[in-house]
Amino acid sequence: MGQKRPTANMSSSVGSAGVRALSWEYCWAALLARDRSMDGRVYYSVRTTGVYCRPSCPSRRPRSEHVRFYASAAEAEQAGFRPCRRCRPELSSAVEPHVTSMVKICRLIEQSDHLPSLGELAKQAQLSPSHFHRMFTSVVGLTPRGYAVAQRAKRLRLELDRGRPVTAAMYDAGFESSGRFYAASHALLGMTPSRYRAGGVQTDLWFAVGQCSLGAILVAQSLQGVCAILLGDDPEALVRDLQARFPRAQLIGGDAAFERVMSMVVGFVEEPQRGLSLPLDIRGTAFQQRVWQVLQQIPLGSTATYREIASRIGRPASVRAVGQACGANPLAVAIPCHRVVRQDGGLTGYRWGVERKRDLLAREAQRSEQSAGSCSTPATQPPDGPV
C-alpha cells in the first residue's frame, strides 16, 4: 500500500503482501463514506497534517491529493505519520476484537462479592495478565482495579442511601474487614461512612461566588480538592445547587486563603490553556468517571461527538447515557463537557447554557489558532486532524 492517488504512470491497485489488493478508488470511497467495515483493513494518511486515520474517522475529510493509503498502522508509522487522536487507529486492530470480552469482564466484576485479582480476570478473558490489563484499560478507560473500586464505591453508596447500617453496607459492598473498609471509605465517599449516610452532615465545604466573563461562578472545595465549579446567571441559584448536592454539609464562606483557590479557578476558566494545578475531588459512578476521563483527553480547540465518546469507552450504544454523564458533570471547564457536540457539529445539552458553550468553544478555538501561529511547527509535525 502506502500509495498516492494513481496517475497514468501508477498502478491503480493498492495492496501489500498478504493483503487483498484494493484500488485507490475503492479506498477513497470507504474514506468518503466513513465505512467502519474497512477499519483495520486499510488506513489513510494526510500529508498536510502528518497524521494517519481509520476510514471511519469523524475528522473533516481531506483533499484527495493529500491522501495515501496503507495496509496497516505500522506501515503508516514507518512512513513518518503519527496516529490521529480522534479515531485512535493504532488501537483499532488490537482492541476491537476484545470489546465483547471486556464487557463480559465488566459484568463479572460488577457481580463479584470481592475484588477479583488481575490473574483471575485475565484467566476469564483467556489472556496473559499484562495483555489483559492493557486491553481492559484501552476498552473501558479504567484499569481493572480502578473499575472494581468504582463498582464497590457504587454499591457502598447505594446501601448507605437505602439507610442500611454502616457495618451491613460494608459487607454488602464486598469489604471483608473493617480495617480495609475504613481505610478506603474516605477516598470512595469523600467523607466517613456515617457522615455520608447522614447526608454529608459535618462535612466541611469551603466555597465562594464571583464573576467571570461567562457570568456568575461558584467554586467549592472539600478537604480532598475542588469538588464543584458551577456557572450561571444567578449567584443564589448556584448556592442552592451546591446545597442540594450536599444537603447536610457545613458550607463555609471562603476566607483569604480560599481567595487564591478562587482566583486560580477563574483564571483557568478565562484561559483554559493555562491548566489547573489544583487537586480535584471528582465523585461519580463508574460510568460517569469513564466518560469524564475521556472528556479530559479532548485537546484544547477540538471537539468530539457524543457518539464518539460512547465508542471510546467501549459502549457505542450508550450515546444518551454519555449525554447524561456530561449533564451530571459538576466541574465546568475542568472536565470539558462543553467540547462534546452533536453528530452534525451542532451545540446542544450544556448544563450551564448553550451560549456559554458556544463562547467557550470559540475562545478555545481562537487561542488554539493563536498558539499554533506563534509556534514554528516542522512540516512533518503539524497539528492533528485532517484538513
Short description:
By secondary structure, this protein is α/β, with parallel strands linked by helices. The protein has helices at 24-33, 73-78, 89-95, 99-111, 118-125, 129-140, 144-161, 166-172, 178-189, 193-197, 235-245, 256-270, 286-295, 306-312, 319-327, 354-374, and strands at 13-14, 22-23, 43-46, 51-53, 67-70, 82-83, 204-212, 215-221, 226-232, 250-253, 304-305, 340-341. The strands form 4 sheets. Strands 5-3-4-6 form a 4-stranded mixed β-sheet.
Features:
387 residues; 12 strands; 4-stranded mixed β-sheet; alpha/beta; globular; 44% helix; 16 helices
What does this structure look like?
Strand 1 and strand 2 form a beta hairpin. This protein has a four-stranded mixed sheet. The chain has a four-stranded mixed sheet with strand order 9-8-7-10, with helices on both faces. 44% of the residues lie in helices and 12% in strands. The model is unreliable at 6-21 and 376-387 (pLDDT under 50). The protein contains 16 helices and twelve strands.
Question: Largest beta sheet, briefly?
Answer: 4 strands, mixed
The count of helical stretches stands at 16
Q: Residue ranges: pLDDT <50 for 5 or more in a row?
A: 6-21, 376-387
Radius of gyration: 24 Å
Structural class: alpha/beta
Terminal CA distance: 22 Å
Task: State the order of secondary-structure elements, H for helix, E for strand.
Answer: EEHEEEHEHHHHHHHHEEEHEHHEHHEH
**Given the C-alpha coordinates, what overall shape results?**
globular
Helical fraction:
40-55%
Strand content: 5-15%
Task: Compute the number of strand runs.
Answer: 12
Compute the average pLDDT: 78
Strand order of the largest sheet: 5-3-4-6
